[in-house]
Amino acid sequence: MGSHVVAIGDLVADILCVVPSLPVEPGAIHTPYPIRVEPGGSGNFLITAARLGLKASALGALGTDAVGDIIYAALSEEGVDLQFVYRPPHSTTTTVLVLVGEDGAHALIGSYGRIPPLCWHPEWGSLFRESSAVFMPGYTLAEPAFQEVALAILERSRERGCRIVFDAGPMAVHIPKDALKAALALAEVVLLTEEEAHALQLDPSQILQEGPRIVVLKRGAAGCRIFTATQQVEAPGFPVSAVDPVGAGDSFAAGWVYAMLKGWPLERAALFANAVGAAKVQKRGTGRQMPTRAEVRQVLERHRPDLLRGTEL
Question: How confident is the model at residue 16 (pLDDT cuts 50, 70, 90)?
Fold first, then answer.
């Protein structure tokens, strides 16, 4: 089995700010609460995938501004392959202010970066010939730099035999319906939350009719449900103390891709992905606060040690 995954688009900077509670009281001054700049979006997926032992490559864009420098350095230090990360002159990085209350409530305030639209580059073909899986968040279909090329990337990566995992995400409701339908048709696996399925007015059976082989319905602390044309699998979550859900979906996706590339059965893959998500929610923040292999191992040792067989954790 291959162990190389490429994440498409969605490279952002998260400015993480912990506050006593949300909403923030107007005029109040809160000290000392840490503020950090971390990789967000696909960066969370890439860091988790690399920590699990996959070769993780980014095909994305960052600005040449100061926050872009921070994100590029952080991803590089985590072992993420950045050969195909484009940083055009005078560009700026998409930035998200992440407010996290001490009770785990959160709010996101985002601003698109200024990066010219990308077109297909012939050298990308070598990247997909070497990779086994492609991960694309729904946000990429709305990202200005990738709107014109995202579907072409999916089409050509599929032609080269890559297994496509599409994570609808909260941006899915803002994606043009024809683009969303095309992405679903190209994916082997679709990930989405119950809330996202409701907002899209799509149930798993309808999504399966568009072309995917597997639909994963994420249910937070309750775990997830897996749907195929012939079966439904229930995978319960793990009882851990959650402090911050931000990035849990990205870590879940990395756990799913890891298990998928190992060739594990659906139930084991789902439980493992749940464990990676459970390791994340016990930590506050994104980027370099994503779970380590040791932290995922701790969750499994406590709750499902049988799942450690065949892993490198």
Answer: confident
